Amino acid sequence: MAIVIRSARQEDCPAMMALIQELAIFEKAPDAVTVSMEEFEESGFGLSPVWWAFVAVDGLEVIGMSLFYIRYSTWKGRRLYLEDLIINEPYRGRGVGKMLLDRTIAYAKEQGYSGMMWQVLDWNTPAIKFYESYRATLDGEWINVSLNFDK
């Protein structure tokens, strides 16, 4: 396995969107992905990017990604928010997730951020065990809040 981890490029966006759709299906929300390719590309590679990503590549194929943005905590300062860590299903359990998460952690440390945050569904036992192997804290106290605007 000659997997390479590198920064995402605009030409990776179609493969990244396919991974996002795969995640939505896995999370039992196949119709929840409504972002357009244009919005996705502009948000990551336009004049004012709001997200960054690392991709795992096997040969020429993008097989995983770590997409993140910067969050600010009035208590802790700048923190990396890991929006998605997605590995193509045939590659799961082969260390690709660890490679991506390790690179993302290294990036956050290089940037001087105070830490990282992310979410995991309470029924995703393999992911929970994976994150616990990093000694990550799982906090069941906070409730997710979302406000959606119609376009």
UniProtKB/TrEMBL annotation:
Domain (N-acetyltransferase): residue spans on this chain: 3-151
UniProt xrefs under Gene3D superfamilies: 3.40.630.30
InterPro entries listed in its UniProt record: Acyl_CoA_acyltransferase, Diverse_Substrate_AcTransf, GNAT_dom
Segments crossing the lipid bilayer: 50-70
UniProtKB keywords: Acyltransferase, Membrane, Transferase, Transmembrane, Transmembrane helix
A family per Pfam: Acetyltransf_1
Record protein name field: GNAT family N-acetyltransferase
The species this protein was found in: Sphingobacterium faecale
